[in-house]
Amino acid sequence: MTLSGKLGSSSRPVRIAIIGAGPSGFYAAGALLQQKDAHVSIDLFDRLPTPYGLVRYGVAPDHQKIKSVTRIYERTMKDSRVRYFGNVDLGTDITHAELISCYDQIVYAVGAQSDKRLGIPGEDLKGSFSATEFVAWYNGHPDFCHFQFDLSVESVAVIGVGNVAMDVTRILAKSVAELKTTDITDYALEELKESKVKRIHIFARRGPVQAKFTNPEIRELGELEIADVIVNPADLVLDAASQAEMEGDRTARRNIETLQMLAERGPTGKPKQIIFHFLRSPTEITGEAGAVSAITTEKNALQETGTGYIACRGIGSYTEYDVGLVFRSIGYRGVPIPGVPFYDRWGIIPNEKGRVTIDHGDAVVPGEYTVGWAKRGPTGVIGTNKPDAVETVKLMMEDVKNAAAPLPVDGFATNRSVPHTDGHGRPGDIMSLLNNKGVNFVSFADWQILEQIENERGERRGQPRVKITDVDEMLRLIQSAREEPVLP
Protein backbone atom coordinates (compact mmCIF):
# COMPACT_ATOMS: atom_id res chain seq x y z
CA MET A 1 0.00 0.00 0.00
CA THR A 2 1.65 3.23 -1.15
CA LEU A 3 0.87 6.35 0.81
CA SER A 4 -0.12 9.53 -0.91
CA GLY A 5 -0.87 13.03 0.27
CA LYS A 6 -4.22 14.30 1.37
CA LEU A 7 -7.31 13.62 -0.64
CA GLY A 8 -7.27 16.17 -3.44
CA SER A 9 -3.51 16.14 -3.95
CA SER A 10 -2.01 15.67 -7.41
CA SER A 11 -1.17 12.05 -6.59
CA ARG A 12 -4.59 11.38 -5.10
CA PRO A 13 -7.23 13.50 -6.85
CA VAL A 14 -10.81 13.47 -5.64
CA ARG A 15 -12.68 10.95 -7.79
CA ILE A 16 -16.11 12.36 -8.60
CA ALA A 17 -19.06 10.86 -10.47
CA ILE A 18 -21.68 13.23 -11.89
CA ILE A 19 -24.93 11.47 -12.74
CA GLY A 20 -26.64 13.37 -15.53
CA ALA A 21 -24.94 15.15 -18.45
CA GLY A 22 -27.39 18.00 -18.85
CA PRO A 23 -26.77 21.68 -18.02
CA SER A 24 -26.61 21.21 -14.25
CA GLY A 25 -24.16 18.33 -14.61
CA PHE A 26 -21.91 20.28 -16.93
CA TYR A 27 -22.00 23.38 -14.73
CA ALA A 28 -21.04 21.21 -11.78
CA ALA A 29 -18.13 19.76 -13.76
CA GLY A 30 -17.10 23.23 -14.88
CA ALA A 31 -17.15 24.58 -11.32
CA LEU A 32 -15.09 21.61 -10.13
CA LEU A 33 -12.48 22.27 -12.81
CA GLN A 34 -12.29 25.95 -11.94
CA GLN A 35 -11.88 25.57 -8.17
CA LYS A 36 -8.30 25.70 -6.83
CA ASP A 37 -8.73 23.78 -3.59
CA ALA A 38 -8.20 20.23 -4.83
CA HIS A 39 -7.14 18.11 -7.77
CA VAL A 40 -10.14 16.30 -9.22
CA SER A 41 -10.96 13.48 -11.62
CA ILE A 42 -14.51 13.66 -13.01
CA ASP A 43 -16.66 11.05 -14.73
CA LEU A 44 -19.93 12.28 -16.26
CA PHE A 45 -22.66 9.69 -16.78
CA ASP A 46 -25.85 9.84 -18.81
CA ARG A 47 -28.59 7.30 -19.46
CA LEU A 48 -28.62 8.18 -23.17
CA PRO A 49 -25.66 8.01 -25.55
CA THR A 50 -26.03 11.74 -26.20
CA PRO A 51 -24.95 14.44 -23.74
CA TYR A 52 -26.50 17.89 -23.07
CA GLY A 53 -29.85 16.72 -21.71
CA LEU A 54 -32.36 19.55 -21.64
CA VAL A 55 -30.41 21.59 -24.18
CA ARG A 56 -30.76 18.83 -26.76
CA TYR A 57 -34.18 17.49 -25.85
CA GLY A 58 -35.95 20.37 -24.09
CA VAL A 59 -34.92 23.63 -25.74
CA ALA A 60 -37.18 24.40 -28.69
CA PRO A 61 -35.68 23.68 -32.14
CA ASP A 62 -36.15 27.31 -33.20
CA HIS A 63 -34.01 28.53 -30.29
CA GLN A 64 -30.59 27.70 -31.69
CA LYS A 65 -28.90 30.57 -29.86
CA ILE A 66 -29.76 28.95 -26.53
CA LYS A 67 -28.43 25.61 -27.78
CA SER A 68 -25.05 27.23 -28.50
CA VAL A 69 -24.24 26.86 -24.79
CA THR A 70 -23.07 23.35 -25.69
CA ARG A 71 -19.82 24.93 -26.92
CA ILE A 72 -19.01 25.69 -23.29
CA TYR A 73 -19.93 22.16 -22.26
CA GLU A 74 -17.72 20.78 -25.03
CA ARG A 75 -14.71 22.65 -23.63
CA THR A 76 -15.43 21.03 -20.27
CA MET A 77 -15.50 17.56 -21.83
CA LYS A 78 -12.18 18.14 -23.61
CA ASP A 79 -10.41 18.72 -20.29
CA SER A 80 -8.12 15.78 -19.54
CA ARG A 81 -9.61 15.50 -16.05
CA VAL A 82 -13.08 14.66 -17.42
CA ARG A 83 -14.46 11.47 -18.99
CA TYR A 84 -17.91 10.84 -20.44
CA PHE A 85 -19.87 7.60 -20.02
CA GLY A 86 -23.04 7.76 -22.11
CA ASN A 87 -25.60 4.97 -22.45
CA VAL A 88 -25.15 4.06 -18.76
CA ASP A 89 -28.28 3.91 -16.62
CA LEU A 90 -27.92 4.17 -12.86
CA GLY A 91 -30.06 1.44 -11.37
CA THR A 92 -29.85 -0.80 -14.45
CA ASP A 93 -26.31 -0.80 -15.83
CA ILE A 94 -24.66 0.20 -12.58
CA THR A 95 -25.93 0.17 -9.02
CA HIS A 96 -25.67 2.83 -6.37
CA ALA A 97 -23.45 0.51 -4.33
CA GLU A 98 -21.10 0.01 -7.28
CA LEU A 99 -20.86 3.75 -7.77
CA ILE A 100 -19.86 4.44 -4.21
CA SER A 101 -17.22 1.70 -4.43
CA CYS A 102 -15.49 3.63 -7.21
CA TYR A 103 -15.82 7.30 -6.25
CA ASP A 104 -15.10 9.64 -3.36
CA GLN A 105 -18.02 11.91 -4.17
CA ILE A 106 -21.20 11.54 -6.23
CA VAL A 107 -23.22 14.42 -7.66
CA TYR A 108 -26.80 13.83 -8.80
CA ALA A 109 -27.70 16.12 -11.70
CA VAL A 110 -30.73 14.17 -12.85
CA GLY A 111 -33.25 16.98 -13.29
CA ALA A 112 -37.01 16.59 -12.87
CA GLN A 113 -38.10 13.95 -15.36
CA SER A 114 -41.85 13.74 -14.72
CA ASP A 115 -44.75 16.17 -14.94
CA LYS A 116 -47.23 17.32 -12.36
CA ARG A 117 -50.81 16.31 -13.03
CA LEU A 118 -53.96 18.39 -13.08
CA GLY A 119 -55.84 15.93 -10.91
CA ILE A 120 -59.14 16.42 -12.75
CA PRO A 121 -61.59 14.00 -14.39
CA GLY A 122 -60.69 13.04 -17.95
CA GLU A 123 -56.98 13.72 -17.61
CA ASP A 124 -56.14 10.24 -18.92
CA LEU A 125 -58.29 10.42 -22.04
CA LYS A 126 -56.62 9.83 -25.39
CA GLY A 127 -55.34 13.19 -26.58
CA SER A 128 -54.40 14.45 -23.10
CA PHE A 129 -50.63 14.80 -22.71
CA SER A 130 -47.96 16.52 -20.72
CA ALA A 131 -46.20 19.32 -22.56
CA THR A 132 -42.91 17.54 -21.90
CA GLU A 133 -44.06 14.55 -23.97
CA PHE A 134 -44.77 16.79 -26.95
CA VAL A 135 -41.50 18.72 -26.52
CA ALA A 136 -39.47 15.50 -26.25
CA TRP A 137 -41.27 14.11 -29.32
CA TYR A 138 -40.52 17.02 -31.65
CA ASN A 139 -36.96 17.25 -30.26
CA GLY A 140 -36.20 13.59 -31.00
CA HIS A 141 -35.82 12.12 -27.54
CA PRO A 142 -35.46 8.36 -28.11
CA ASP A 143 -38.03 7.55 -25.40
CA PHE A 144 -40.74 9.62 -27.10
CA CYS A 145 -40.26 9.08 -30.84
CA HIS A 146 -43.14 6.59 -30.94
CA PHE A 147 -45.71 9.03 -29.50
CA GLN A 148 -48.60 10.08 -31.71
CA PHE A 149 -50.41 13.39 -31.57
CA ASP A 150 -53.62 13.90 -33.53
CA LEU A 151 -52.95 17.22 -35.24
CA SER A 152 -56.05 16.82 -37.41
CA VAL A 153 -58.05 18.64 -34.70
CA GLU A 154 -58.80 22.33 -35.06
CA SER A 155 -58.55 23.41 -31.40
CA VAL A 156 -55.91 22.67 -28.74
CA ALA A 157 -55.70 23.57 -25.06
CA VAL A 158 -52.36 24.42 -23.42
CA ILE A 159 -52.56 24.53 -19.63
CA GLY A 160 -49.95 26.82 -18.06
CA VAL A 161 -48.08 29.99 -18.86
CA GLY A 162 -44.41 29.11 -18.38
CA ASN A 163 -41.80 29.05 -21.12
CA VAL A 164 -42.44 25.39 -21.95
CA ALA A 165 -46.12 26.16 -22.54
CA MET A 166 -45.07 29.00 -24.84
CA ASP A 167 -42.72 26.66 -26.72
CA VAL A 168 -45.50 24.15 -27.31
CA THR A 169 -47.81 26.92 -28.46
CA ARG A 170 -45.23 28.41 -30.81
CA ILE A 171 -44.38 25.08 -32.46
CA LEU A 172 -48.09 24.39 -33.05
CA ALA A 173 -48.60 27.88 -34.46
CA LYS A 174 -45.58 28.23 -36.72
CA SER A 175 -45.59 27.70 -40.45
CA VAL A 176 -43.61 24.87 -42.02
CA ALA A 177 -41.36 27.49 -43.63
CA GLU A 178 -40.48 28.81 -40.18
CA LEU A 179 -39.72 25.32 -38.86
CA LYS A 180 -37.87 23.64 -41.70
CA THR A 181 -34.59 25.49 -41.07
CA THR A 182 -34.50 24.36 -37.41
CA ASP A 183 -33.35 21.01 -36.01
CA ILE A 184 -36.89 19.77 -35.44
CA THR A 185 -37.14 16.05 -36.22
CA ASP A 186 -38.20 14.94 -39.68
CA TYR A 187 -41.18 12.96 -38.42
CA ALA A 188 -42.46 15.92 -36.37
CA LEU A 189 -42.13 18.28 -39.32
CA GLU A 190 -44.07 15.86 -41.52
CA GLU A 191 -46.89 15.72 -38.96
CA LEU A 192 -46.93 19.49 -38.55
CA LYS A 193 -47.13 19.93 -42.32
CA GLU A 194 -50.49 18.17 -42.21
CA SER A 195 -51.68 19.97 -39.07
CA LYS A 196 -55.25 21.29 -39.08
CA VAL A 197 -54.82 23.21 -35.82
CA LYS A 198 -56.38 26.68 -36.07
CA ARG A 199 -56.93 27.71 -32.45
CA ILE A 200 -54.62 27.29 -29.48
CA HIS A 201 -56.24 28.18 -26.16
CA ILE A 202 -53.78 29.03 -23.37
CA PHE A 203 -55.22 28.79 -19.86
CA ALA A 204 -53.66 30.47 -16.82
CA ARG A 205 -55.14 29.98 -13.37
CA ARG A 206 -53.86 33.37 -12.21
CA GLY A 207 -53.47 36.74 -13.87
CA PRO A 208 -50.99 38.11 -16.43
CA VAL A 209 -48.66 39.58 -13.80
CA GLN A 210 -48.22 36.12 -12.27
CA ALA A 211 -47.43 34.46 -15.61
CA LYS A 212 -44.05 32.67 -15.59
CA PHE A 213 -43.04 33.12 -19.23
CA THR A 214 -40.10 35.40 -19.95
CA ASN A 215 -40.62 38.43 -22.15
CA PRO A 216 -38.78 37.11 -25.23
CA GLU A 217 -41.14 34.12 -25.27
CA ILE A 218 -44.31 36.21 -25.33
CA ARG A 219 -42.84 38.66 -27.84
CA GLU A 220 -42.06 35.79 -30.20
CA LEU A 221 -45.72 34.80 -30.30
CA GLY A 222 -46.56 38.24 -31.62
CA GLU A 223 -44.10 37.83 -34.50
CA LEU A 224 -45.37 34.57 -35.96
CA GLU A 225 -45.99 34.39 -39.70
CA ILE A 226 -49.42 32.73 -39.72
CA ALA A 227 -50.82 33.22 -36.19
CA ASP A 228 -52.53 36.11 -34.40
CA VAL A 229 -52.39 36.46 -30.63
CA ILE A 230 -55.70 37.32 -28.98
CA VAL A 231 -55.65 38.95 -25.53
CA ASN A 232 -58.77 40.26 -23.81
CA PRO A 233 -58.05 43.87 -22.67
CA ALA A 234 -60.23 43.27 -19.60
CA ASP A 235 -57.71 40.65 -18.41
CA LEU A 236 -55.05 43.35 -18.27
CA VAL A 237 -56.95 45.52 -15.78
CA LEU A 238 -54.98 44.82 -12.60
CA ASP A 239 -56.09 44.68 -9.00
CA ALA A 240 -54.05 46.57 -6.39
CA ALA A 241 -52.02 43.51 -5.32
CA SER A 242 -51.07 42.62 -8.90
CA GLN A 243 -50.21 46.24 -9.61
CA ALA A 244 -47.87 46.28 -6.62
CA GLU A 245 -46.30 42.97 -7.64
CA MET A 246 -45.71 44.21 -11.17
CA GLU A 247 -44.01 47.39 -10.01
CA GLY A 248 -41.41 45.31 -8.21
CA ASP A 249 -40.82 42.88 -11.09
CA ARG A 250 -39.15 44.11 -14.29
CA THR A 251 -40.09 40.97 -16.27
CA ALA A 252 -43.76 41.30 -15.25
CA ARG A 253 -43.79 44.96 -16.31
CA ARG A 254 -42.37 44.10 -19.72
CA ASN A 255 -44.80 41.20 -20.10
CA ILE A 256 -47.78 43.46 -19.40
CA GLU A 257 -46.51 45.99 -21.93
CA THR A 258 -46.23 43.26 -24.56
CA LEU A 259 -49.65 41.83 -23.73
CA GLN A 260 -51.18 45.32 -23.96
CA MET A 261 -49.63 45.76 -27.39
CA LEU A 262 -51.05 42.42 -28.52
CA ALA A 263 -54.48 43.26 -27.09
CA GLU A 264 -54.52 46.54 -29.00
CA ARG A 265 -53.44 44.85 -32.23
CA GLY A 266 -56.17 42.19 -32.05
CA PRO A 267 -56.85 39.73 -34.90
CA THR A 268 -55.36 40.61 -38.28
CA GLY A 269 -56.83 37.77 -40.33
CA LYS A 270 -54.04 35.23 -40.03
CA PRO A 271 -55.20 31.61 -40.36
CA LYS A 272 -54.29 30.60 -36.79
CA GLN A 273 -55.17 32.16 -33.44
CA ILE A 274 -53.45 31.94 -30.08
CA ILE A 275 -56.02 32.88 -27.45
CA PHE A 276 -55.03 33.73 -23.86
CA HIS A 277 -57.46 32.98 -21.04
CA PHE A 278 -56.31 34.33 -17.69
CA LEU A 279 -57.90 33.45 -14.35
CA ARG A 280 -59.15 30.09 -15.62
CA SER A 281 -58.57 26.69 -13.99
CA PRO A 282 -59.42 23.43 -15.79
CA THR A 283 -61.99 21.38 -13.87
CA GLU A 284 -62.76 18.55 -16.30
CA ILE A 285 -61.69 17.11 -19.63
CA THR A 286 -64.50 15.37 -21.48
CA GLY A 287 -64.36 13.06 -24.43
CA GLU A 288 -66.12 11.13 -27.13
CA ALA A 289 -65.19 7.51 -27.88
CA GLY A 290 -62.43 7.75 -25.28
CA ALA A 291 -60.71 10.75 -26.85
CA VAL A 292 -60.60 14.40 -25.76
CA SER A 293 -63.41 16.54 -27.16
CA ALA A 294 -63.70 19.44 -24.70
CA ILE A 295 -62.29 21.05 -21.57
CA THR A 296 -64.24 22.87 -18.87
CA THR A 297 -62.67 25.69 -16.86
CA GLU A 298 -63.74 27.66 -13.81
CA LYS A 299 -63.32 31.42 -13.53
CA ASN A 300 -60.99 32.47 -10.71
CA ALA A 301 -60.51 35.53 -8.55
CA LEU A 302 -57.17 36.58 -7.13
CA GLN A 303 -56.66 36.85 -3.40
CA GLU A 304 -53.72 37.97 -1.28
CA THR A 305 -52.16 35.66 1.28
CA GLY A 306 -50.26 36.45 4.43
CA THR A 307 -47.00 35.37 2.78
CA GLY A 308 -47.23 37.87 -0.07
CA TYR A 309 -48.11 35.17 -2.59
CA ILE A 310 -51.15 36.03 -4.70
CA ALA A 311 -53.35 32.95 -4.82
CA CYS A 312 -56.59 32.32 -6.68
CA ARG A 313 -59.96 30.77 -5.89
CA GLY A 314 -62.78 29.56 -8.07
CA ILE A 315 -65.94 31.66 -8.18
CA GLY A 316 -68.33 29.07 -9.60
CA SER A 317 -68.53 30.34 -13.18
CA TYR A 318 -67.77 27.63 -15.76
CA THR A 319 -67.06 27.65 -19.49
CA GLU A 320 -66.60 24.71 -21.84
CA TYR A 321 -64.23 24.88 -24.82
CA ASP A 322 -64.24 22.42 -27.72
CA VAL A 323 -60.70 21.05 -28.04
CA GLY A 324 -59.23 17.85 -29.44
CA LEU A 325 -55.86 17.94 -27.68
CA VAL A 326 -54.77 19.03 -24.20
CA PHE A 327 -51.19 19.74 -23.15
CA ARG A 328 -50.56 20.37 -19.47
CA SER A 329 -47.52 22.39 -18.48
CA ILE A 330 -48.01 23.09 -14.79
CA GLY A 331 -44.72 22.00 -13.30
CA TYR A 332 -42.29 19.12 -13.02
CA ARG A 333 -40.95 16.78 -10.38
CA GLY A 334 -38.11 14.33 -10.04
CA VAL A 335 -38.38 10.56 -9.86
CA PRO A 336 -36.67 8.34 -7.26
CA ILE A 337 -33.31 6.71 -8.00
CA PRO A 338 -32.69 3.29 -6.43
CA GLY A 339 -30.53 3.73 -3.36
CA VAL A 340 -30.75 7.53 -3.31
CA PRO A 341 -32.93 9.50 -0.85
CA PHE A 342 -36.03 11.12 -2.33
CA TYR A 343 -38.42 13.68 -0.83
CA ASP A 344 -41.72 12.82 -2.45
CA ARG A 345 -43.60 15.90 -1.27
CA TRP A 346 -41.40 18.22 -3.30
CA GLY A 347 -40.21 15.70 -5.89
CA ILE A 348 -36.52 16.38 -5.21
CA ILE A 349 -33.48 14.72 -3.66
CA PRO A 350 -33.51 16.03 -0.07
CA ASN A 351 -30.48 18.21 0.57
CA GLU A 352 -28.96 20.99 2.56
CA LYS A 353 -27.66 23.53 0.03
CA GLY A 354 -26.50 20.62 -2.13
CA ARG A 355 -25.40 18.06 0.44
CA VAL A 356 -27.78 15.10 0.14
CA THR A 357 -29.65 14.31 3.34
CA ILE A 358 -31.31 11.09 4.48
CA ASP A 359 -34.67 12.88 4.47
CA HIS A 360 -35.90 16.46 4.44
CA GLY A 361 -34.16 18.23 7.33
CA ASP A 362 -32.35 15.04 8.33
CA ALA A 363 -28.69 14.06 8.60
CA VAL A 364 -26.27 14.45 5.69
CA VAL A 365 -25.40 11.43 3.54
CA PRO A 366 -21.58 11.50 3.39
CA GLY A 367 -20.05 12.05 -0.02
CA GLU A 368 -23.30 12.57 -1.95
CA TYR A 369 -24.48 15.85 -3.47
CA THR A 370 -27.03 17.24 -5.86
CA VAL A 371 -27.42 20.15 -8.29
CA GLY A 372 -30.03 21.64 -10.60
CA TRP A 373 -33.72 20.76 -10.54
CA ALA A 374 -33.03 17.62 -8.51
CA LYS A 375 -31.66 19.94 -5.83
CA ARG A 376 -33.93 22.98 -5.84
CA GLY A 377 -36.99 21.92 -7.82
CA PRO A 378 -37.97 22.97 -11.36
CA THR A 379 -37.21 26.69 -11.19
CA GLY A 380 -35.11 29.06 -13.23
CA VAL A 381 -33.64 28.95 -16.72
CA ILE A 382 -30.59 27.05 -17.98
CA GLY A 383 -28.18 29.68 -16.68
CA THR A 384 -29.65 29.41 -13.16
CA ASN A 385 -27.84 26.09 -12.86
CA LYS A 386 -24.44 27.75 -12.87
CA PRO A 387 -24.52 29.54 -9.49
CA ASP A 388 -26.47 26.60 -8.12
CA ALA A 389 -23.61 24.26 -9.08
CA VAL A 390 -21.01 26.63 -7.65
CA GLU A 391 -22.81 26.51 -4.29
CA THR A 392 -22.73 22.71 -4.21
CA VAL A 393 -19.10 22.50 -5.35
CA LYS A 394 -18.05 24.87 -2.59
CA LEU A 395 -19.49 22.46 -0.02
CA MET A 396 -17.84 19.50 -1.76
CA MET A 397 -14.44 21.16 -1.44
CA GLU A 398 -15.09 22.04 2.19
CA ASP A 399 -15.71 18.37 2.81
CA VAL A 400 -12.52 17.40 0.99
CA LYS A 401 -10.52 19.70 3.25
CA ASN A 402 -11.88 17.83 6.25
CA ALA A 403 -10.92 14.43 4.86
CA ALA A 404 -8.40 12.24 6.65
CA ALA A 405 -4.74 12.33 5.54
CA PRO A 406 -2.49 10.80 4.47
CA LEU A 407 -4.46 8.38 2.29
CA PRO A 408 -3.50 5.18 0.51
CA VAL A 409 -3.35 5.76 -3.24
CA ASP A 410 -6.12 3.19 -3.69
CA GLY A 411 -8.07 4.11 -0.56
CA PHE A 412 -10.76 6.55 0.52
CA ALA A 413 -11.20 9.07 3.26
CA THR A 414 -13.40 8.02 6.15
CA ASN A 415 -15.04 11.22 7.41
CA ARG A 416 -18.38 12.78 6.42
CA SER A 417 -17.20 13.84 2.97
CA VAL A 418 -16.50 10.35 1.64
CA PRO A 419 -18.13 7.18 2.96
CA HIS A 420 -16.12 4.68 0.97
CA THR A 421 -13.72 2.45 2.88
CA ASP A 422 -13.35 -0.70 0.81
CA GLY A 423 -10.08 0.17 -0.90
CA HIS A 424 -11.45 0.20 -4.45
CA GLY A 425 -11.82 3.17 -6.66
CA ARG A 426 -8.78 3.28 -8.94
CA PRO A 427 -9.44 5.47 -12.02
CA GLY A 428 -9.88 2.50 -14.34
CA ASP A 429 -12.21 0.55 -12.09
CA ILE A 430 -15.48 1.94 -13.45
CA MET A 431 -14.44 1.15 -17.02
CA SER A 432 -13.50 -2.41 -16.07
CA LEU A 433 -16.75 -2.78 -14.16
CA LEU A 434 -18.85 -1.64 -17.13
CA ASN A 435 -16.88 -3.81 -19.56
CA ASN A 436 -17.28 -6.86 -17.35
CA LYS A 437 -21.02 -6.27 -17.20
CA GLY A 438 -21.22 -5.91 -20.99
CA VAL A 439 -22.38 -2.29 -20.87
CA ASN A 440 -21.84 -0.63 -24.25
CA PHE A 441 -20.91 2.78 -22.90
CA VAL A 442 -20.31 5.77 -25.14
CA SER A 443 -17.26 8.03 -24.77
CA PHE A 444 -17.14 11.70 -25.66
CA ALA A 445 -15.14 10.81 -28.79
CA ASP A 446 -17.96 8.42 -29.71
CA TRP A 447 -20.50 11.20 -29.25
CA GLN A 448 -18.45 13.45 -31.52
CA ILE A 449 -18.82 10.83 -34.25
CA LEU A 450 -22.61 11.10 -33.96
CA GLU A 451 -22.45 14.89 -33.78
CA GLN A 452 -20.40 15.07 -36.97
CA ILE A 453 -22.88 12.83 -38.79
CA GLU A 454 -25.83 14.93 -37.60
CA ASN A 455 -24.11 18.19 -38.57
CA GLU A 456 -23.14 16.91 -42.03
CA ARG A 457 -26.69 15.70 -42.69
CA GLY A 458 -28.02 19.06 -41.57
CA GLU A 459 -25.57 21.03 -43.70
CA ARG A 460 -26.78 19.23 -46.82
CA ARG A 461 -30.35 20.30 -46.03
CA GLY A 462 -29.78 23.81 -44.69
CA GLN A 463 -30.46 22.83 -41.07
CA PRO A 464 -28.29 23.08 -37.95
CA ARG A 465 -28.33 19.27 -37.69
CA VAL A 466 -30.49 16.28 -38.48
CA LYS A 467 -30.90 14.41 -35.22
CA ILE A 468 -30.39 10.69 -34.88
CA THR A 469 -33.28 9.62 -32.69
CA ASP A 470 -32.83 5.85 -32.33
CA VAL A 471 -30.37 4.53 -29.73
CA ASP A 472 -29.66 1.35 -31.69
CA GLU A 473 -28.77 3.40 -34.76
CA MET A 474 -26.51 5.61 -32.64
CA LEU A 475 -24.65 2.58 -31.33
CA ARG A 476 -24.39 1.02 -34.80
CA LEU A 477 -22.88 4.20 -36.25
CA ILE A 478 -20.40 4.44 -33.39
CA GLN A 479 -19.38 0.80 -33.75
CA SER A 480 -18.97 1.19 -37.49
CA ALA A 481 -16.68 4.18 -36.97
CA ARG A 482 -14.65 2.29 -34.36
CA GLU A 483 -14.09 -0.57 -36.81
CA GLU A 484 -12.96 1.58 -39.72
CA PRO A 485 -9.35 0.70 -40.66
CA VAL A 486 -6.75 3.33 -39.87
CA LEU A 487 -4.99 4.36 -43.07
CA PRO A 488 -1.16 4.52 -42.98
Walk me through what this model shows.
This protein has 488 residues and is an alpha/beta fold. It has 2 domains: 14-112 and 333-442, Rossmann fold (3-Layer(aba) Sandwich); 117-330, 3-Layer(bba) Sandwich (FAD/NAD(P)-binding domain). Helices cover 32% and strands 20% of the residues. The protein contains 17 helices and 18 strands. It has helices at 23-34, 54-57, 64-67, 70-77, 96-100, 131-138, 163-173, 176-179, 186-193, 215-221, 240-247, 250-265, 373-376, 385-401, 429-436, 444-461, 471-483; strands spanning 14-19, 40-45, 82-85, 105-108, 114-115, 128-130, 155-159, 199-203, 227-230, 272-277, 280-288, 291-304, 310-322, 325-328, 332-333, 351-352, 355-357, 364-370. The strands form 4 sheets. It has a 7-stranded mixed β-sheet with strand order 3-2-1-4-18-17-16. The protein has a 6-stranded parallel β-sheet with strand order 6-14-7-8-10-9. β12 and β13 form a beta hairpin. The longest helix has 18 residues, at 444-461. Mean pLDDT is 92; it is low at 405-424.
